[in-house]
Amino acid sequence: xxxxxxLWLVIVVAVFGFEIQGSTQDIFVAKxxxxxxxxxxxxxxxxxxxYRMVIPAGTCSYASAGVSHxxxxxxxxxxxxxxxxxxxxxxxxxxxxxxxYNIAVTYYPVPGRRSSIQxxxxxxxxxxxxxxxxxxxxxxxGDGGLVQVDNQGNEIRPSQVEIPEWRTVLVAxxxxxxxxxxxxxxxxxxxxxxxxSRREPVVIGQLEILSLTEHxxxxxxxxxxxxxxxxxxxxxxxxxxxxDAVRRSSPSLFPLNxxxxxxxxPYHHTLIRLNTIGGERWSRxxxxxxWEFEVPESGLYQIAIKAKQHVKRGSYSSRRLLIDGRxxxxxxxxxxxxxxxxxxxxxxxxxxxxxxxxxxxxxGKHTLRLENVLGELAEIVRATQESLYExxxxxxxIVMITSANPDPMRDYRLEERIPGLISAxxxxxxxxxxxxxxxxxxIGESGAQVAxxxxxxxxxxxxxDRPFTIPRRLAAFRDNAGALGTWILETREQPxxxxxxxxxxxxxxxxxxxxxxxxxxxxxLRAFLSSFVYDYTLVGNVYSAxxxxxxPLRVWIGSGRxxxxxxxxxxxxxxxxxxxxxxxxxxxxxxxxxxxxxAGRGPDVALGVQDTQPMDFALRGAAVDLTQFPxxxxxxxxxxxxALVPYSxxxxxxxxxxxxxxxxxxxxKDILEELGLEVPQTWDDVIKIIPDLNKDHMDFGxxxxxxxxxxxxxIGEGSATVSVLAHGGVSTFLTLLFQRGEDLYLGDGxxxxxxxxxxxxxxxxxxxxxxxxxxxxxxxxxxRFRMGEMPILVQDFGFYxxxxxxxxxxxxxxxxxxxxxxxRDGIIDRSVxxxxxxxxILSAARNKEHAWEFVKWWTSTETQVRFGQELESILGPAAxxxxxxxxxxxxxxxxxxxxxxxxxxxxxxxxxxxxPGAYMVGRxxxxxxxxxxxxxxxxxxxxLDYNRVINEEITVKREEFDLEVLAP
Length: 968
Prior knowledge:
This protein is an alpha+beta fold. It is 34% helix and 22% strand. Among the domains are: 148 residues, Galactose-binding domain-like (Jelly Rolls, Sandwich); 174 residues, Galactose-binding domain-like (Jelly Rolls, Sandwich); 114 residues; 216 residues, 3-Layer(aba) Sandwich (D-Maltodextrin-Binding Protein, domain 2), CATH 3.40.190. Strands 1, 3, 4, 6, 13, 14 and 16 form a seven-stranded antiparallel beta sheet that branches. Strands 17, 19, 20, 22, 25, 26 and 28 form a seven-stranded antiparallel beta sheet that branches. Strand 30, helix 11 and strand 31 form a beta-alpha-beta unit.
């Protein structure tokens, strides 16, 4: 008997070992799409020169149904084509020889959703490489008016408006990873070029097929100056203030206030002066700012820029310099601005000799543009990003055998079971070591940036040299790979803050930028004394009843100063001029709302309150019932019916939703394809794929945390909440309950519905997912998704924006879709609980009609769209605003496919009522879950026991507020 068991054991081990080894052949062969770097290497021998062909847009060979001819108001392109968000246009072109060609597109940005225009470029019916699927065309922005001054003496930045104009741009990588434009292989003879829409409409005027040549060096241009007899000018100095920029590629590049330096122009020690531009908002490669200036005479000028790059310690930021739309010579491709804690005058010239590069300017008006580029760091970033992708693959392959927490004393024979592992580790150690050396040569020092690379290189070398130590080094390997991802993000960022630009004759001494000791001391003293008298909670204009002959509304907002300033600007632009109602906006911690209200010092309107607060205040007579206003039904139609549920009780509504968030299913396309797995449609499908993931030591992610805890761009931060969704993984339980067609409460909340068979089944399924299928309770969703340990997970849809910004190396490798559902009567029910903050009117409001006008204005489509666009323009795509206004969502910068998915999931949304005693529901559902998971107690009995406690508390609270209670 023992011999038979031993024989079976040997067979099982042999088969298991064979399967592992057999499934890992050629595992480090790149599976992702071809990138431009490798594409360029493939066709580098086919470079062309001196070629240019213009293709009018109207000569296309194919156009989808939505494409139409466009009447050009400027009369420049009479054969232009309008293309919508889901259109395709294709042209046939003939070239005389095989080769690599650049493509320039002349386009006109028509009104859309204020985001950049995205297209894919197909050559002969195929996407040539990954970057061709993410081509961006910038809109052009400028100030919507002059700088205004509020009644406190602070300057108010003008809103950013689009400046539509014809632009011709070379097709380039949207992430700025390459220092050259993208090029495309065209075979001799006929070819097709297609533009496929991804986001935003645009008008196409023409395409150009051309071959670019390098810019001449300054030495060559200088020789041409001499040959043409150009001479330097004398005694001319022109200052261009940074804040006076006339055009920019992003609405986030607006004028800023900097009072850290007494020599900033203009300056005030306390009040806001818009005196600089750029800063950390100007970090994204590809973004540009343009100024106009005029010179009094023709001749040669020097250029200097008073700027501060105080973010990237031990490194520099780069800018491409363009005069009148052209780079004057090669040295202008990447002007470097080294790290400095204060403003420095950076001369455009030879760094070693201090000799300025002179630029010839004709008398009259000119433009100067600075474009954010990676410069010499471009190849460093590209190579590192490629290495990170392979390191993640290596880590994932190791984890498939060892798990994420291996036994450090066990020899897993990884070098045998993962063919190519050692050579891959050695290769990456060498590559990253070389990158570190290249970076050191570029920045001229061995600082923290280099140390990250050197540490990772050494770690990889040790793992390759001593494979038996890999299990105990695995956690460090994961951390180092995560640090490398952060390193890439930080290296890609190229911030720069500009005070002013100098155009001067070579004989003119440049202005001093360093304040003397007396100026610094006086500045610090004034700023310190002002802090005792200046009220920083008030935003913008502050009004009294005498100013408008009406009592101003007092509105509280509990968010960041950026959000408050956007809102105040919008109030001054539209609400007050249209209604005549003045508003004093105060930036406070919304957590003090309750004590302030009890003390009789609360606001008229509160923005960004947690979803439980309208009901908490209403039950105590402190919130206004909004249904009393005649036009409430019209206002309510702005939202999905589920959005009003948390603020409703007994036929009354005490708040309006600001944002609405819900879960989506995120997945790694590359990993699921590699494992041969389909995206699950139901929870039964999820249960089927969990073993397939587990056998490779991967997990399905189902968060043990509440939707209400995700930010998703909400305007308010709020205080601790007692929302049902704020406790543990209750959102998962509610998802399973709602998908069974049941509600959480009976009647108007007189008792819970947790005794129903559907609730017991949902609770049992919820606990079994963690108990039987061992789903992790706690995890870092972003890093585990990025590293591939958790290739499929449920997350708030705001996770999309996070991945777009913080995991650029995964571009094109992931997607999101509807959450898994429960099949009932042949239909997959994908119901999901939703949550979000609200705005409400306090009962103590002095003028409730005026407060209602403000709330209507705030939740209107126009206001929500503008606020969301302004917020994203300032804080970036990661701060995309999840407005609850349905029409506003349709105007935010999602692609057509993304928007359709979000709206389909929203159609399944169900709100969670906030009833008296509701705080006990989430708390005890979480307690019941823990009892089952940690103490192995039976699910049914545990749920029913806690349900009795919950209902007792609900009864107590309903009696307190004189409401009907459940009969004993």
